[in-house]
Give the backbone structure.
Amino acid sequence: MSAADREAELAQPHNNDSPVEHIVVNSEKDSMSIDKENGTITSDGEEPTEDEKRTLRHIAENLPVSAWLVAVVELCERFTYYGMSGMFQNYVMRPLDGSQGRGALGMGHQGATGLTTFFQFWCYVTPIIGAIVADQYLGKYKTIVWFCGVYLIGLLILVCTSIPVALEHGAGLGGFVVAILVIGLGTGGIKSNVAPLIADQYKRKKMALKTTPKGERVIIDPALTIQRIYMIFYGCINLGSLSLLATPYMELYIGFWSGFLLCLCMFATGTMVLIFGRKYYVVRPPQGSIITDAFKALWIMVKNRNMDAPKPSWQAEHRGVQSMPWNDHFIDELKRALVACRVFAFYPIYWVVYGQFSSNFVTQAGQMEGHGIPNDLMQNFDPISIIVFIPLLETLVYPLMRRLKIPFRPITRISLGFVVASLAMMYAAIVQHLIYSAGPCYGHPGCAASVVDGTAMGNHVHIAIQTPAYVFIGISEIFASVSGLEYAYTKAPPSMKSFVQSMYLLTNAFGSALAEALTPAAFDPAIMWMFAALACASFTCGIIFWLVFHHLNSQEDDMNALDADDDLQAETVAPHATEPVDAVDLAQHKH
């Protein structure tokens, strides 16, 4: 309905200066209100006109209860993942010397970096398995539950093989390898599904008009709500990662096994929340052969060198094909998903940078004077910075930018994330230079001159100087990682949310593979130059990314609007994954 169709007499005041940014919308039922400025009656819940989309303020809705429950599950899983993997570097690097908190496997710096990097790689390859299981067979919810069971088995193996008696009898290395393989399979199955599951809890697909209690007309924008969902989701991830405040001290004063046991208990709690909260979740059923059909359609695109070639209407017009196992709308959705996958191609460089905070940054902290602070405790400044900056951005910066009509679309945010990540690497290179410039060991930290009572005390540089590197990494995550999650969800077809999410996560695996290739450079003094090279690479990628993809910002609303047409397509065109679509009947139907 246009504004002209709603003209009527003025009846209530209008205020364009309302400070309200996030409005709680409890009902989508229409209610009539009158706009003073335009002299028109508006119905809350109606779709805005193009002019209203340009001129009215856009807002986000609050999250439904079910979304918060999914966020709690993710918090518990990330508590486990980070609390456990944050100890891996010391667990693998340092030898067992009678004090359980000081080491276990004794494989040295390169061995530890290699194994922890492999674990990261494995954790981001396995989401493909979870995505296929979810999208084709079990659905997201059931897949998460089953892979939680796998995760628990891996944690149990890790706990049992890390107790002192098991380490003394040589079970540590074998148990660790088996545990990270099983845990990686479990976390992969969860990660590809929990991010789309939380966004599935939000049902609105189209923009809608709303009048605030102060009389201001605003537009409820689903894209902003999805952005907000993933900001909160990422905040919960980093709240969970604060487990690193506890596990390093448990490692130091009790033993590695105690930290692993805490992680096991926390994950079991999250699994219980998932199971007992079942009735609250919005659960979408699997779509049958969706992944198989997607690859068939991609092959037709490649073979015909035409993105529209798999459409039933195109096949009927050019090939005389009578039926296809999908409709035109499915191909439009698949093309949108391919746009997202192109955007993700730059992410491996970012993940190489990001992975430094849990590997080489930990080693770097161990080369400085700790003053009673465990070297792997410093990792907590990454999630702490995220927890601090997310509310600031969500409640102050982003609303102010929207009021000032300053667009801050996903492509722009991702580019900025790459640039900020480069600052983290440059700062790390400077810190490494300071370490090499200080005694007593200078360019060879950990030498005999620094050993006191059997422990290397580090060069004379305070460990706290490392803090800004973690803060820069955290800020970069808010822009690059959160926007990547958002982009993976909004650009994926409804039936392929988990699979496209797994493609995004797979870029992390490629990043880990690149980091694995850099492992030979993880020694003193070459590591300083590795940090500097990563800074240059991340900055360059951020600039190139913007130049290549910034045009997609202007297409954002149009691509997001495809989801809003799903119900109509299901009614007017044959649904996907039920029966073949008659291509001749669809020849004249253009999406």
Summary: The chain has 23 helices and eleven strands. The longest strand covers residues 32-35. The radius of gyration is 26 Å.
